[in-house]
What we know:
Elements: H1 2-43, H2 51-56, H3 64-67, H4 71-80, H5 94-105
Helix pairs in contact: 1-5, 4-5
Amino acid sequence: MKTIRMQAFATVTASAALFLVSLSAQAQSASETLYKGKCAACHGADGAGSATGTKMGAHDFTTAAVQGMSDTELADIITNGKNKMPKYGASLKPEDIKGLVAYIRAFKK
Ligand code: HEC
């Protein structure tokens, strides 16, 4: 009886873990889709900045200059824009912007 309960518990725990892993993988790919669709034209698929973006004044996401900014500063620039950087506060949800900040962090060298 006790063994069966333990096995059931282990199965439930394992499925919950798998579920969480697939959830975070989904969040990651949603940010990737957003980034490639809305940001890569200026910031480059690798975050270093496209020719157009660099000419407009975008900074290389892989460098300490950008990675040294706080999550709040990065989210603020995405939300409110800055110079030639368009603002996305009206078209993206705060959690999408949070996901994009995490995605930008992954460019760190
Ligand atoms: C039309 C080109 C363009 C697009 C599209 C664009 N950006 Fe930018 N972005 C810029 C420019 C130019 C700057 C530099 C602003 C400044 O400091 O003058 C910038 C700055 C930033 C910064 C601050 C770091 C830095 O490089 O100065 C972040 C973070 C950022 N953009 C994120 C994003 C995200 C996320 C998206 C997509 C949702 C996006 N950008 C779309 C042009 C763009």
